[in-house]
Amino acid sequence: MAARQHAAGAFIGLVFGFMLCWSGMVDPDVIRQALLFEDAYMFFFMGSAVGTAAIGLRILARLGRRAVLVDEPIAWTPERATRRHVGGSLLFGLGWGVSGACPGPVAAQVGQGIGWGFVTLVGVLAGVWLYMRREGAVETEPASDATAAPDPSARAVVPA
What we know:
Layout lengths: L1 H22 L4 H8 L5 H22 L20 H17 L3 H10 L2 H19 L27
Helix pairs in contact: 1-5, 5-6
């Protein structure tokens, strides 16, 4: 089952990367124009992706479908935003503004040979390394499962 999951994950990643490139989301000029509020293309694109995913996930959950990679029912537990969400959002936004890319486009920029994509990738990897070195860095998901004791030997999982 692991080989099938890895192959499915690689396929999904390739499709995601292709879509980022095809849509122009890795183009430094598109990113810069969006961050300077000169062009709303990227925001409309992301909004349509979030809307499509939200509707699609609700339909799949209602139909009782299972997730492709982990073969578990599609389900989630809504939770209120906490300080860690706000802090993480601010840190993500700051990094996005400084580097001009988030983790998905960084991988595509490196794949396309865009120069500063390599520098940004080093920054992403350094941030992950620093996070994992932090004392007590354990997997934080699911955040709403307050009854489960964290496994001290667990490695941190950083979402892409």
